[in-house]
Amino acid sequence: MAYAYLFKYIIIGDTGVGKSCLLLQFTDKRFQPVHDLTIGVEFGARMITIDGKQIKLQIWDTAGQESFRSITRSYYRGAAGALLVYDITRRDTFNHLTTWLEDARQHSNSNMVIMLIGNKSDLESRREVKKEEGEAFAREHGLIFMETSAKTASNVEEAFINTAKEIYEKIQEGVFDINNEANGIKIGPQHPTTNSTLSSSQGGQQAGGGCC
Amino acid sequence: MNFFRGVMGGQATGPQPTGAETIQKLCDRVASSTLLEDRRDAVRALKSLSKKYRMEVGTQAMDHLIHILQTDRSDSEILGYALDTLYYIICNDEEEEQDENSQKQADDLGIKFTEQFIQDPEHVTLLLSLLEEFDFHVRWPGVKLLTALLKNQGVQVQGVILVSPMGVSRLMDLLADSREVIRNDGLLLLQQLTKGNASIQKIVAFENAFERLLDIISEEGSSDGGIVVEDCLLLLLNLLKNNSSNQNFFKEGSYIQRMKPWFEVGDDNSGWSAQKVTNLHLMLQLVRVMVSPVNSPGATSSCQKSMYQCGLLQQLCTILMATGVPADILTETINTVSEVIRGSQINQDYFASVNAPSNPPRPAIVVLLMSMVNERQPFVLRCAVLYCFQCFLYKNQKGQGEIVATLLPSTIDANSISAGQLLCGGLFSVDSLSNWCAAVALAHALQDNLTQKEQLLRVQLATSLGKPPVSLLQQCTNILSQGSKVQTRVGLLMLLCTWISNCPIAVTHFLHNQENVPFLTAQISENLGEDERLVQGLCALLLGICICYNDNSLENYTREKLKQLIEKRIGKENFVEKLCFINKHELYSRAAQKPQPVFPSPEQMLFDHEFTKLVKDLEGVITKTVHKSSEEEKKEEEVKKTLEQHDNIVTQYKELIREQDSQLQELKEQVATLSSQNEQMQTTVTQQLAQIQQHKDQYNILKLKIGKDNQSQSGSQGDGSQVNGLQTEELTQLKEELEELRQQHALLQTQLADKDAIVNTLVRNLCQKKPVTQIMFNCLL
C-alpha cells in the first residue's frame, strides 16, 4: 500500500507493563489477557492517517526483562518514536522510568519523540501512581503523557497517533533529516518531495490542534 | 638494530636463526620499540611470516598485535598490517590443495587462535570500533578478520557483538560503503553474523537490510547479476528463514512486490549461466520461505494474497510454461508455485485457469500431470508435479469437484485429454511410480470431501471390448489382488483407505465385492516377509475402516460379523500388531514431517503426508473398536442411547418450559389489560353513583318543595294543580331516570363481578404455573 511516510517506533518499559498488549490492541484491535513473555523483539505494523496523509507505522515491541536490555538497545538509534510504558498499579515500574529514559536518551538520536504512557488505567481500584505524578514526570522531562488501557482500548489509538503527529510536526518544522533513514523515517514511494513547504503550514496547524 | 637488519636482509653471518627465534625477536621489537617506524616494520615482517609460520606467529605474536590495535590507533598502516597478520593466523580458508589431515590441523589451529583472541570480549569490541576507521587498509582486513572469527566461533562472537551497543548497526553500515570490495566482504560478514541467531537477524532487518539488499540486487542486474547477487540472496535467506517477526516485517514493508521483477524471464531461456541458475534457485527459495507450510497459517495466507495481487504468482506460472528453462529451475518453480497456491482459494482458482501456450491450449494442470505419469521425466520433477497437484487440491472443494467431474460419465469430454483420464491412465500403467503418484493424487481429490467420495463411486471404466464396464473401485481392488509391485499396492491401498474412510456408502460398495474381505483377511493373517509388512499393515487399516464406517447394510459384513472374523481368523493381537506396521515403518515419520513429497530414491516413495494424518486419526479408533467385546459395545451403545434419551427428555422439558414461558407472558399481558379496564369501569361506576346521588338529592329537595307548596297554596288549587301537574310530570321523568340509572348500576355491578372473577382465576393460574416451572427446573438440575 502506498504511504506518504513511514515511521519506526519502539515500545520500551519494565516487564509486564503491557507493551505487547498495547501493540496487539493497536494492530489487531484485540486484547489478550494472558500473554507470553516477549523474547527479544517482536514486530507489528499499521497504517494511520494524519493530515490526510497515509502514514505507515512499523513498531518494534521489545522485551522488558533486564536480560534483554542490551539487545533492545540496538533499536534505539533507528527509531523515530518511542512509547515508554509503566503500569499505574505498580509503583516500581514508575520508579524505573528514569533509568529507561537515560538509556533511551543515550542511545537514540536526539530528535526521537518519546511518549510516556501509564497503562492499565482500567484498574482504578489498584492504582498506585496518580495521574498527576505521571503528568509531572512528563513535564519535567519534556515528554508527551497519556494514560491508556490496552484492555479497554482507551487512549491506545491516541497514544500511537499523537506520537506520529508529533513526529510529523517535527518533519514539517524541518527538525528531522528525512533523507537519512537511520532516523527511523522514510518517505513513501509516491511522495512528492518538492511541495513539502506547501504542506508544512497546513500540517503544522492541524497537528497542533489535534495534539494534547 | 644491526641484528634485525640482518634478519630482514637475510645476510646474517653465523648460523641462520630458526623461524621461532626470528619471530620472537620481531615480537620483542613490536613490544619495546619506541619508534613507530620500527614497530611498523616489525609488524610488516610478522605479516610476511604469518603464512609460513602460522603456528609460531599465532602463539608468540597475538598479544603484541592486539596491543598494537589498542595503542597505535593513529597509524592506519600499522593497524592494517596487524589486522592482516591476525587474519592470516585465524583464517582457515587460505590453504588449498591440502590433504584432509593437514586441513583438519589447520582448522584446529584457527579455532584455537580464535578462542585465544575472543577470550577477552573487549578484543571483539575493539575490532568493531576499528571498523569505524574509513581507511581501506584498516576496514578491509578488519572485515575479513571479523568474518573469520565468526566462522570459527560463531556463537561466542555473535554474543559479544549482540551486547555491544551499535555493534550490529555499525556492521550494517558496511553495505553502504562505496568501495565494492568492502561492501561485498561486508555481505559475507553479515552472512556469518546472522547465521542461526534470531536476535541479530531482527536487528539487521531493523537496520533496513531488506531495502539495501533489494537495492543491491536490482543494481547488480537481478538474476543476471554475479556472485554479489547470490551473496545478497543468501543473506536474505538467513534473515527470513524461520524468523516470523522478520517475515512479517518483510511483508509489511511491501518487499514481496519487489521480488516480482526477479522472475521476468524472456522467451528464449536457453544458455543460462550457472550463476543465473544459482541466483534464480535462491530467489525461488526466498519466495518459498515466505509461504512455507510450517509458517503460521495466517502469515502464509496473507503472503499468498499479496503474491497474487502483485502478480508474482502469475510471473512464476509464466516460467512454468516457458520453453528452455533448465530442469532444476523448472522443478523448483513448480515447488514454489505449489506453496504459493496451497490452501489459498484465489490462488488455486487462478492456477486452474492457467493455460499452456500449446495448440489447442491445454490447462497447465493437464500439462503438468502428463509429466507426472511420464516415465521419462526426471524423478524430482514428477515429485514436484505431484506436490503442485496436492497443493492445488488442499482445502479446495471446488478444485476437487472439478477433477472428479472429468471422470464422471455425464461431464466427460472425449475430445480432449483431461486430468481424470491422465490419473486413470497413471493408476493402471505398468510403471509403478506412475501408479503411486496417480493413486495419491486421486486420494487428494477426495480428502475431507464426502461428496466427491460418493461421486467417484459412479466412475465406470471400459475394459476390453465386449466386456461390461467395471467400476473404478472394482478395478483398484482387482489390481491389488493381482499382486503387483509393493509401490503400486501401497499407492492403491492408500487411495482406498482415503476413499472409504468416513463414507459408509463407499464401505458398502467395497464390501459388496465378495472377494475383498477374504483377500484382506488372507493378506493380514499370512506370515509374509519384511517387504510385505507395509502392505499387511495397510490391509489391516482398510479392514479396520470397513468396521468403523460400517452402516450394517450388508448382512454378511456387519460391524459385528467383521469383528468376529478378525477374532477368529486373524486374532485381535495379531491384527493390531499388523496395523502398527504402518507407523513403525522407517519412512513413515519422514513423510509425517512436511507436506512436500521428497524421497531420496524412487523406491522410497511410499508414504504420503496427508495419509499419515489419516493413519494418526484412525489407528487408535480401530484398535479400540477391535479390542472391545460385543457386550461392551452393546453396553456402550445402550449408554449412548440412554444418554440420547436423556438428552431428548431434557430437550422436551426445555421446549415445555419455553412454551409455558410464552403462555405466562401472554397471561400477564392479559391481566394487565384487564386490570386497566377494571380500573376504568370502577371510575365510571363511581362517577355514575355520584350522579345518582345528585339526582336523589334533587328529587328529595323537589319532594320537600312539593309538600310545602301543597300546604301553602291549598287556596289557589287551579294554579297549584297546574304547578303540581307540571311537578308530577317532572317527577315521573325523574323517577324513570332514576330507574334507568338503577338498572345501569346493577348491570355495571354484575360486569364488575364478572371481571373480578376473571382476574381471580388468572391470578390463581399464575400462582399455579410458577411452582410447576420451578419443579421442572429442579428435575433438570
From TrEMBL, chain A:
Residues 186-212 are annotated as: Disordered. PROSITE patterns: RAB, RAS, RHO. InterPro entries: P-loop_NTPase, Rab_GTPases_membrane_traffic, Small_GTP-bd, Small_GTPase. Keywords: ER-Golgi transport, Golgi apparatus, GTP-binding, Lipoprotein, Membrane, Nucleotide-binding, Prenylation, Protein transport, Transport. It is a lipid-anchor. It is found in: Cytoplasmic vesicle, Secretory vesicle, Acrosome; Endoplasmic reticulum membrane; Golgi apparatus membrane. One of its GO terms (cellular component) is acrosomal vesicle. CDD domains: Rab2. One of its GO terms (molecular function) is GTP binding. GO terms for biological process: protein transport; vesicle-mediated transport. SUPFAM superfamilies: P-loop containing nucleoside triphosphate hydrolases (SSF52540). Belongs to the small GTPase superfamily. Rab family. This is RAB2A, member RAS oncogene family.
Automatic annotation (TrEMBL), chain B:
It comes from the Eukaryota. Residues 346-625 form the Vesicle tethering protein Uso1/P115-like head domain. It is found in: Cytoplasm, Cytosol; Golgi apparatus membrane. It is a peripheral membrane protein. Pfam families: Arm_vescicular (PF18770), Uso1_p115_head (PF04869). One of its GO terms (biological process) is vesicle fusion with Golgi apparatus. Keywords: Acetylation, Coiled coil, Cytoplasm, ER-Golgi transport, Golgi apparatus, Membrane, Phosphoprotein, Protein transport, Repeat, Transport. Residues 650-698, 724-758 form a coiled coil. GO terms for cellular component: cytosol; endoplasmic reticulum; ER to Golgi transport vesicle membrane; Golgi membrane; Golgi stack. Gene3D superfamilies: Leucine-rich Repeat Variant (1.25.10.10). InterPro entries: ARM-like, ARM-type_fold, P115_Arm_rpt, Vesicle_P115, Vesicle_Uso1_P115_head. Belongs to the VDP/USO1/EDE1 family. General vesicular transport factor required for intercisternal transport in the Golgi stack; it is required for transcytotic fusion and/or subsequent binding of the vesicles to the target membrane. May well act as a vesicular anchor by interacting with the target membrane and holding the vesicular and target membranes in proximity. This is General vesicular transport factor p115. It comes from Cynoglossus semilaevis (Tongue sole). The lineage of its organism: Eukaryota, Metazoa, Chordata, Craniata, Vertebrata.
